[in-house]
Amino acid sequence: MADTSATTPKTRTTKAPKVETVEATSVDTMAETSPNKAEAKARFSKAIDEAKAGAAALRDEAKVRAAGYREQGKSKSGDLSAEAKTKARGLAQDGKTAASDALSGLGRLVSENASVVDEKLGAKYGDYARSASRSLQETSAKLEQKELDELAEDAREFVRKSPGLAVGLAAFGGYMISRLFRR
After folding, report:
1. What angle do CA 138, 144, 149 make, to 5 degrees?
2. What is the pLDDT of residues 86-97, one digit of tens each?
3. Is the pLDDT of residue 17 over 60?
4. Burial of 99 from C-beta contacts in 10 A (0-12 / 13-18 / 19+)
5. Residue 140 neighbours by CB distance under 10 Å
6. What are the angstrom distances between the C-alpha of 112 and each of 8, 22, 115, 149?
7. Which of 15, 53, 63, 111 has the most neighbouring CB atoms within 10 Å?
8. Does 150 have pLDDT greater than 70?
């Protein structure tokens, strides 16, 4: 039995230091982990703060760039708008000149054929043709003398005074244009 009792204390002694060692290791690990956790938390918080600062800097830079693009867009749109107005005014002037020339040419044609109307239909109808020719010539001259702004105002006034007639004329003009392009 002596051998057994001698073995038992050895086992206890052997186990005791292992337990103490394990406990010491656990305590040491916990002691070492706590400062590591704190350091990790501090680094993580610092990284988050840096990320927030970076995001704020990017947001500010994006705002500055957006404002620059907005200004650039405004200036381009202003330039394009001015160019479009100039071009539209030029086209309207060309249209006014062409309409005036067409009325003048129609008036000359009617005037030249007034004598034929006299012969075929009588002097009374020839006088109507001459009167229409003069009216066309006068309208052509008035059209040529007026500025585009005056013509636009006259058109607005005409639409205000007789909107039904204006809509009818627009419908008739649309019908004629559609018939022209149909063929």
Report:
1. 120
2. 998 888 888 888
3. no
4. middle
5. 20
6. 146, 127, 7, 34
7. 111
8. yes
Give Cβ neighbours of residue 139 (< 8 Å, ≥ 6 apart): 103
The rounded distance, in Å, linking the Cα atoms of 113 and 122 is: 13
Element (H, E) at 118: helix 114-121
What is the DSSP-derived secondary structure letter of residue 146?
S
User: Whose CA is closest to 85, among 153, 145, 142, 149?
Assistant: 149
Cα separation, 143 vs 90, in Å, equals 16
Q: In this predicted structure, what is the pLDDT of residue 12?
A: 47
Residue 88: predicted pLDDT: 87
Check if the beta carbon of residue 144 is closer than 8 Å to that of residue 151: no
Round to whole Å and give the CA distance between 178 and 16. 109
Region 37-63 average pLDDT: 89
88's tokens = 């539209």
Find the mean pLDDT for residues 71-98: 87
